[in-house]
């Protein structure tokens, strides 16, 4: 959301963002700490970078459906048009569903119906308004029964995990999958992190390692 504000010549999009949040508080302290590393200096007088991030709180799957519908109205409004909003982040899609559905057949059918509406709505909005939609998903630790299958799994923090499942319909509507994992480094006393491209229609699967330090994100 911060890098998206940079000019295209600096690999940004020159745009504003909508942050759809399901749990916790907006991480303003962490974002403020990142700003100097993205823009090269602390904010000066004028518009603060976080003022171009519109935060929308969502507390239920049904509220998420309403928010997707609201999003198109907002993008067509004078504020949405003048603000050039082109990035939408949902944090996180799985947490919105996790606490509101049970494992009963009726509940799973309701979840599937809502996921279809949200997925189709976001895909249509992305195409119509040239949006980048980032949906954060959680991971779950695999069971002992699944442990040796090796399918769609990766190591993170010493555990074998996989993305939380939201059904085939959701999976089929995701064009690019990026996996973030971390491993504690006993030598440095910090976390070694890896970003992996798991699937993409235009790029080969690949990854790189990095750390987060006082200097920002550093390649290792």
Structure, explained:
With 220 residues, this protein is α/β, with parallel strands linked by helices. The protein has a domain at 3-137: Rossmann fold, CATH 3.40.50.300. 32% of the residues lie in helices and 30% in strands. It is built from six helices and eleven strands. It has helices at 28-39, 61-76, 78-83, 93-98, 105-129, 168-172; strands at residues 16-21, 53-57, 85-91, 132-136, 139-141, 154-156, 159-163, 177-185, 190-199, 206-213, 216-219. The strands form three sheets. The protein has a four-stranded parallel sheet. The chain has a four-stranded antiparallel sheet with strand order 8-9-10-11, with no helix packed on it. Strands 5-7-6 form a three-stranded antiparallel sheet, with no helix packed on it. Helix 2 packs parallel to helix 5. The longest helix is centred in the middle third of the chain and has 25 residues, at 105-129. It is globular, with a radius of gyration of 19 Å. The chain starts with 15 loop residues before the first strand and ends with a strand.
Give a quick rundown of the structure.
This protein has six helices and eleven strands.
For this entry, give a set of tags.
4-stranded parallel sheet; 6 helices; globular
Topology summary:
Blueprint: E1 16-21, H1 28-39, E2 53-57, H2 61-76, H3 78-83, E3 85-91, H4 93-98, H5 105-129, E4 132-136, E5 139-141, E6 154-156, E7 159-163, H6 168-172, E8 177-185, E9 190-199, E10 206-213, E11 216-219
Parallel strand pairs: 1-2, 1-3, 3-4
Antiparallel strand pairs: 5-7, 6-7, 8-9, 9-10, 10-11
């Amino acid at each position: 959301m911060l890098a998206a504000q940079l000019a295209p010549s600096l690999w940004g999009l020159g745009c504003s963002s909508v942050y759809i949040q399901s749990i916790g508080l907006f991480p303003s302290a962490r974002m403020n700490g990142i700003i100097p590393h993205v823009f090269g200096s602390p904010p000066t007088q004028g518009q603060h970078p976080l003022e171009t991030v519109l935060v929308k709180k969502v507390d239920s799957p049904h509220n998420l459906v309403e928010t997707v519908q609201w999003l198109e109205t907002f993008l067509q409004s004078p504020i949405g048009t003048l603000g050039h909003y082109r990035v939408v982040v949902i944090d996180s899609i799985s947490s919105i569903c996790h606490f509101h559905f049970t494992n009963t057949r009726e509940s799973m059918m309701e979840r599937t119906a809502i996921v279809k509406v949200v997925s189709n709505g976001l895909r249509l909005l992305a195409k119509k308004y040239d949006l980048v939609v980032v949906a954060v998903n959680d991971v779950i630790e695999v069971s002992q029964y699944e442990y040796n299958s090796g399918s769609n799994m990766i190591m993170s923090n010493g555990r074998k995990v996989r993305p939380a499942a939201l059904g085939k319909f959701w999976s089929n509507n995701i064009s690019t999958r990026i996996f973030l994992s971390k491993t504690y480094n006993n030598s440095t006393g910090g976390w070694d992190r890896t970003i992996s491209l798991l699937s993409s229609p235009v790029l080969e699967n690949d990854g790189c390692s990095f750390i987060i330090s006082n200097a920002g994100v550093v390649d290792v």
